[in-house]
Amino acid sequence: MAPIALVEAKTPAVATQDEVLKKKDLGQIEVLDLPQLYTRPSYLTLTHLLHNLALPPPSWDAPANAPVADPKGLTKYLTTIISSPLKWLADDSEREQIWDLASARLSERCGRSARGDMSRTFRIPLGDGEETEVRIFEPSLTEDQLGLKTWGSAYSLCKRLPELYGEGKLVPRCEAGEKALELGSGTGLLGIGWAGVTGMGTVLTDLPEIEANLRRNVEDNRDDVAGVMEVGVLDWTRNGEATIGMGRYRVVLAADPIYSKEHPGWLVGVVVERLERREGARFVLEIPIREGYSWERDEVRRLLEEGGLEVVGEGRGVGRDDWGGGEVEGWWSVWTWKKECLE
Ligand SMILES: C[S@@+](CC[C@H](N)C(=O)[O-])C[C@H]1O[C@@H](n2cnc3c(N)ncnc32)[C@H](O)[C@@H]1O
């Protein structure tokens, strides 16, 4: 008996790749449009389709309620591909590629924690209608490292910088050679944005396990940013052992640095040690207003005041978050030394 040839059956009602792309943008894909596995779609059909189904990194510039291209049934469709032996494909390498692509598309639809590495672009206003783009790499969150993703407060503060920094503003323009220090930089968005908007030399710091990715992001943006950037380790519990320039700074920055009972004390301890004790010195902070963290926020204010600082300006802003896709309110504030604490 002649062997039965495994030919690709006709795939009725399968949308063209262009149609799938267009529908993906509108969040309108019908799972029935997609090539069903019983029709034995070819390797080429499946690779094109799975590339087209890629979701872009979540954007914080889109409206919070923008449609998500994640129709019901698509995750089931992707799971079916992953669990299928795909016997009609030519060899194992083709099968492996299709399974890998389907797994990647599935994890993109399972929330931020499941998503793999991603490179994102943030648009930061420079003032006078100009903008710059900051490119940030976020590795997949396989470990519980909060500094490997970008948090809404960093972005919200970056967007506010032209309003805060400059002649007659809350943070007076800096002289040549004056530097800024960022604490808990994470992926570096705020520090890089600061160096770009102000042109100041900026030192970005975090814990040892966050340093490599922070350094990578600083290098990726160095050529497009006016201020000279440096990176190092500064653990708030070991301020004296920092690997980067010791001493005091004209500006200290921090975004979303408080998420345990110990953090207010540790953070404020470093601010008091590292902020220059002269007029014009400023500590710039944004903390998201998360439910259940009001004690920590009040404690930051109390400790800063007790440490000799006073607020020169503060307010509320709206940030974004990858978790749940919603908007998060933030408290921004700018601090300086009380007169009696100046040197
Ligand atoms: C919620 S993340 C915010 C990161 C970044 N500022 C942002 O807004 O995207 C908090 C950051 O504080 C850092 N951090 C926590 N404890 C620290 C400590 N003891 N010393 C230095 N950095 C610390 C974390 O590693 C992390 O990068």
UniProtKB/TrEMBL annotation:
Protein's recorded name: Uncharacterized protein
Gene Ontology molecular function, alphabetical: S-adenosylmethionine-dependent methyltransferase activity
GO cellular component terms, semicolon-separated: cytosol
Pfam families recorded: Methyltransf_16
The organism's place on the tree of life at top rank: Eukaryota
